[in-house]
Specification:
The complex is a heterotrimer of chains A (256), B (255) and C (476).
Chain A lengths: L2 H12 L7 H13 L7 H4 L3 H14 L3 E5 L5 H11 L5 E4 L3 H4 L10 E4 L8 E5 L2 E3 L4 E5 L14 E7 L3 E2 L2 H11 L25 E5 L4 E2 L7 E2 L6 E7 L16
Parallel strand pairs in A: 1-12, 2-3, 2-4, 4-7, 5-8, 7-12
Antiparallel strand pairs in A: 5-6, 6-9, 10-11
Chain B lengths: L5 E4 L3 H6 L1 H13 L3 E3 L9 H5 L3 H14 L5 E4 L2 H14 L5 H13 E3 H8 L8 E8 L3 H7 L3 H8 L2 E7 L13 H4 L1 H18 L3 E4 L2 H13 L5 E4 H5 L14
Parallel strand pairs in B: 1-2, 1-3, 3-4, 5-6, 5-7, 7-8
Helix pairs in contact in B: 5-6, 5-8, 7-9, 11-12
Chain C lengths: L7 H9 L2 H23 L4 H17 L1 H14 L3 E5 L2 H14 L4 E4 L3 H5 L2 H7 L3 E4 L2 H8 L16 H11 L12 H18 L2 E4 L3 E3 L4 E6 L3 H7 L3 E7 L3 E2 L2 H15 L7 E5 L13 E7 L3 H4 L15 H4 L2 H6 L10 H12 L1 H4 L1 H4 L6 H5 L6 H14 L5 H14 L2 H18 L5 E2 L6 H4 L4 E2 L6 H11 L4
Parallel strand pairs in C: 1-10, 2-3, 2-4, 4-7, 5-8, 7-10
Antiparallel strand pairs in C: 5-6, 6-9, 11-12
Helix pairs in contact in C: 3-12, 9-10, 16-20
Classes of the chains: A alpha/beta (256), B alpha/beta (255), C alpha/beta (476).
Chain lengths: 256, 255, 476
């Protein structure tokens, strides 16, 4: 008997039953498909959008994320340049090849040396967008894809993330819905599924969803927190207050 | 006015053997709270040593005897959170696999059983006592009373009404003292570390007396304080609330 | 690793006698509980979330076969593979097989207690593959050739001087005169040393905090970012995990995530929570080309449907360790196997046998602090008591102890005899102790008097005094 069948058989024996009846399976499949939410703390969910954004900023700063607020796209390059100078960092960026970032007038700041692609060893500073920002804990939600390589989030010492105010959601659950909504394309190798209707990830589900809450840290030596254990030492957010960004910017519809 | 309730005192074997004063203090407090108090002679021990050692059969035999001895009273009151917890929380678990009638008897007893100080406050509505004691004290929250029965605010409420008493909170009051029934003799070195830390914490408060609601913990703490030469007295909280502080403290010889 | 749980009393004595360990434990004893308390005070819904967390896990365990099959289907649908393993040996072989198939020489590892459970590193090394632990704490103990002493802070038993010694001994290519006297310098050195390993590794191995049936995803929660570098950079990502980590949906995981960091480190949320689903997609610029899940049972399904099922709710947050006075006294190594503290005291006998680990469920005062902080309300003391009952039923406990118990039970079930004994013992001990009020040594209570005095009884039993009072119709 295969290990798989042995284990599944063992589970059923221990629970003193056979395979679940079809109607129970259908009810369980429905539970999964419904994405029913459990209790969501009122902390962020009860807030109006402006207060939710303020909470996001406060929670992010609490975990040593730095946040700069700018009024519009036009001001992003200047803010990035200002941050790099203030932190004594080189004016070199590796940037996600994200169409949402192309709309930002980088040419207005020609001293910034920008490469687009994945992060390579030696890259000091990366810049990305995100899918959403979760106010509850000051958490950024980023998804992987051809335009959004994951290495940008972890390899460089400094990670700069451009967040649009309209991307700030209350909860992780709001974020999961955004991931589901954007996942529409076909899966790479969808094997045929036997008979029944498919319960599970929609096609186009990203390889990785990264929830990032502050820079990398460790407390492994005498419980004294040190930033920059293996991932970025600094996490800087440029929060753009302008509500109607250009098409494709952050590819996230605001959710209520 | 309602008929005074008939209360049976579950003395506990440690109080019976080591410190009857605690039993008499409990009786005085219950009488102050308007109860008629009896101490059924058919009682011995609640069975916790057997239960916690995995000896289910003996635990059940002892529990059956307790259930019989305390039938017919309005309440059963215990000057120990640990023994009260045994009856209130663990008797129903112990008889969960027995026939329904027996389980029902265990549950009925459990529902009528209370730790002394929480009974005075929560059931009898007592908010103050008449006692006076010019002394400084600190209070250790014994684990079972605290976590199984929610005994925390009640002793502090009543102690606050004792004239002349100044109560200092004990840092780490909710940390176990390392008694743990047979634990303290099975793993004496670990128990020693725990009760040693507790004794140091108690000494650091500067209080003259440490109070608690469980004699097992008090014997452990008093024994460690005296071994370390720390001159802090240990008493059961009931003695202070009942104003019965003429007796020597735990482990102190009669004058 | 070979279990030394049978030697718990000796292990514990060694821990108590180690001043450096005691200093390190002193830091942990106050730090973790205070931070947890702060975090939950900021979240008014915390108690309700605990209740929901428990319900989610119970629901999942009751339908474990359904959710595992759904999970497997979705892993495959996203291009990954699931390797079912009945026991540690099968899991080790599965990992080794994957490594060999891609000719792996260097394997980076994120922290995984399941990998510890199956003793993966030793097996890889024995087969010519170099495992490199990348979590800072795990890296330190790997250098020191010792097991973790805590399930989320593996090097919590060490002080920074010991870490510095380990680094000097291992990083011989660096200037021996470099200063290594603070955690910042140590952390930076580990970062510098480990970065090339991340880049050179052929395979990255992580554990999983949760598996999501709905999407076929694994979730890891870390603070360092080492887990992400481990699973993003190599060609192959292997998730080594166990089957009770499964939950139905991302919504269910969100609830448990809200409980996890707060219970573990007292953080609102850990720095990195990563949901991984299959290998890199066409067009992706990074990510592993292969995604494997080694799904371990190793005795867990035997716990289903019985008195230890609740243990399968465990999130491995370590709140029970952080709040346990016994753990705080002796440290994690005393427990003698992979899982220490209260959760280990319940789990270890199930995984290595009661013969080996019988001490662990006994070494508890039942103070109940573990259960009171458990994010999914596992009744840890009750399950330790279940182990004691099994031990008693199988006559595994020491005979003198058993006889003592039987003798007391015999007395306790005979009230007349009991009262006679109480009066005589009370009078005898009271008389013997009347001078000092306490005993410094008593031959039949040596375990007691070895470390503390025994207060002398007052001299009479309550019941005999009560009988006198009843007869005289008045006060005492």
């Amino acid at each position: 008997m295969s290990a798989r069948d042995d284990i599944l058989g063992g589970i059923r024996r221990a629970l003193r039953r056979g395979p679940l009846p079809a109607e129970t399976q259908a009810a369980l499949a429905e539970r999964v498909a419904a994405h029913r939410r459990n209790l969501i703390p009122a902390r962020a969910a009860s807030l109006a959008p402006a207060a939710r954004i303020d909470l996001f900023v406060a929670m992010a700063e609490e975990v040593q994320t730095t946040v700069a607020r700018v009024a519009s796209n036009d001001q992003i390059p200047a803010e990035v340049a200002r941050y790099l100078v203030a932190e004594n960092l080189p004016a070199e960026l590796v940037m996600a090849p994200d169409p949402g970032l192309a709309a930002i007038p980088w040419d207005s700041w020609p001293l910034l040396d920008i490469r687009r692609g994945r992060a390579e060893p030696g890259d000091a500073v990366s810049l990305t967008l995100c899918l959403a920002a979760v106010a509850e804990t000051g958490t950024l939600m980023l998804v992987s894809g051809p335009d959004t390589p994951t290495t940008l989030n972890f390899l460089p010492d400094t990670h700069i993330v451009v967040v649009r105010a309209g991307q700030v959601v209350a909860s992780y659950e709001d974020g999961w819905d955004l991931v589901r909504n954007r996942a529409t394309g076909p899966l790479p190798n969808p094997p045929p599924l036997a008979g029944e209707g498919r319960v599970g990830a929609p096609a186009g589900w990203p390889r990785t969803v990264n929830l990032i809450t502050g820079p990398s840290r460790t407390g492994d030596i005498e419980q004294r927190i040190q930033l920059g254990a293996h991932g970025p030492r600094r996490l800087h957010i440029v929060l753009v207050d302008e509500c109607s960004g250009p098409e494709g910017f952050g590819n996230a519809p605001a959710v209520g | 006015m309602a008929e005074p309730p008939r209360v049976a005192l579950l003395v506990t074997c440690l109080v019976d053997l080591f410190r009857p004063s605690v039993g008499f203090a409990a009786v005085a407090l219950l009488e102050e709270a308007g109860c008629i108090v009896e101490a059924p002679r058919a009682q011995t021990c609640c069975g916790q040593p057997a239960y916690n050692s995995g000896d289910r059969a003996d635990a059940k035999a002892i529990a059956r005897q307790v259930i019989a001895a305390f039938a017919g009273y309005d309440y059963v009151v215990v000057p120990s959170g640990s023994c009260a917890g045994m009856v209130r929380v663990h008797y129903p678990e112990l008889f969960a696999d027995e026939e329904p009638a027996e389980l029902a008897r265990a549950e009925a007893l459990a529902a009528r059983t209370h730790e002394l100080v929480s009974f005075l406050v929560d059931v009898r509505g007592m908010t103050e006592v008449a006692a006076r004691w010019d002394r400084s004290a600190t209070y250790h929250d014994a684990c079972s009373g605290l976590r199984e029965l929610g005994v925390k605010a009640q002793p502090r409420l009543l102690l606050a009404s004792v004239a002349g008493l100044s109560l200092t909170e004990l840092p780490g009051a909710e940390l176990c003292c390392g008694f743990g029934g047979t634990f303290c003799v099975k793993y004496p070195e670990i128990s020693d570390k725990m009760v040693g830390d507790k004794a140091v914490d108690i000494a650091a408060t500067g209080a003259a007396t440490v109070l608690a609601g469980d004699l097992g913990c008090l014997l452990n703490i008093a024994g460690k304080l005296s071994r370390l030469g720390i001159r802090v007295e240990a008493r059961h909280v009931a003695e202070v609330l009942a104003g019965m502080t003429d007796t020597p403290a735990i482990g102190v010889p009669a004058a | 690793m070979d279990a030394t749980s049978h030697a718990f009393p000796a292990n514990a004595r060694a821990g108590l006698a180690d001043p450096t360990l005691q200093r390190a434990l002193g830091l942990a004893r106050t730090g973790f509980p205070a931070r947890r308390q702060q975090a939950i005070e900021r979240l008014p819904e915390f108690e309700e979330l605990r209740e929901e967390g428990r319900a989610i896990k119970d629901h999942t365990l009751a339908h474990l076969d359904f959710y595992l099959e759904l999970y497997e289907r979705n892993v495959i649908a996203s291009g990954g593979q699931v390797h079912w393993a009945r026991n540690a040996a099968e899991a080790r072989e599965a990992v080794l097989g994957i490594c060999r198939a891609v000719g792996a020489r260097i394997v980076t590892k994120g922290k995984s207690m399941v990998a510890e459970e199956i003793a993966l590193n030793d097996h890889l090394e024995a087969n010519g593959i170099t495992p490199v632990e990348t979590d800072l704490g795990e890296y330190i103990i790997q250098l020191r050739h010792e097991p973790p002493s805590h399930i989320i802070a593996p090097a919590i038993h060490l002080m920074k001087e010991q870490v510095a010694d380990a680094f000097r001994a291992a990083h011989t290519e660096l200037d021996p005169g470099r200063p290594l006297d603070d955690p910042r310098a140590l952390c930076d050195e580990a970062r510098t040393i480990l970065r090339p390993h991340f880049l050179a590794a052929d395979v990255g191995i992580t554990g999983a905090n949760f598996l999501i049936a709905e999407t076929g995803s694994s979730i890891i929660v870390t603070n360092e970012g080492n887990g992400d570098l481990t699973q993003t950079l190599p060609r192959v990502h292997i998730v080594v995990t166990s089957l009770e980590k499964i939950v139905p949906t991302l919504e269910d995981a969100a609830t448990l995530l809200r409980l996890l960091a707060r219970s573990a480190t007292g953080q609102e949320f850990s720095s990195y929570t990563t949901v991984s689903t299959g290998p890199r997609r066409p067009g992706d610029l990074d990510g592993p080309e292969q995604y494997h899940v080694v799904l371990l049972d190793n005795g867990r399904t035997d716990l289903l449907g019985g008195e230890f099922q609740d243990m399968l709710r465990c999130l491995r947050c370590a709140a029970c360790l952080n709040h346990c006075p016994v753990y705080a006294a002796v440290g994690g190594h005393a427990y003698g196997w992979v899982y220490p503290g209260p959760m280990g005291a319940v789990l270890t006998p199930a995984l290595v046998g009661l013969h080996e680990a019988g001490h662990l469920p006994n070494a508890s005062t039942f103070c109940g602090r573990c259960e009171s902080v458990c994010p999914v309300k596992i009744p840890l003391p009750r399950m330790m008591r279940h182990w004691r009952a099994r031990e008693f039923a199988q006559a595994l406990s020491p005979p003198t102890y058993r006889w003592g118990l039987r003798l007391w039970a015999m007395l306790a079930t005979r009230p007349a005899l009991y009262h006679a004994f109480a009066e005589i013992a009370g009078r005898a001990l009271g008389w013997a102790g009347r001078g000092r009020g306490r005993f410094r040594f008593l031959p039949f209570a040596a375990g007691w008097t070895q470390v503390r005095d025994l207060p002398a009884p007052e001299g009479r039993s309550f019941h005999s005094l009560w009988a006198e009072r009843q007869r005289s119709g008045g006060k005492r």
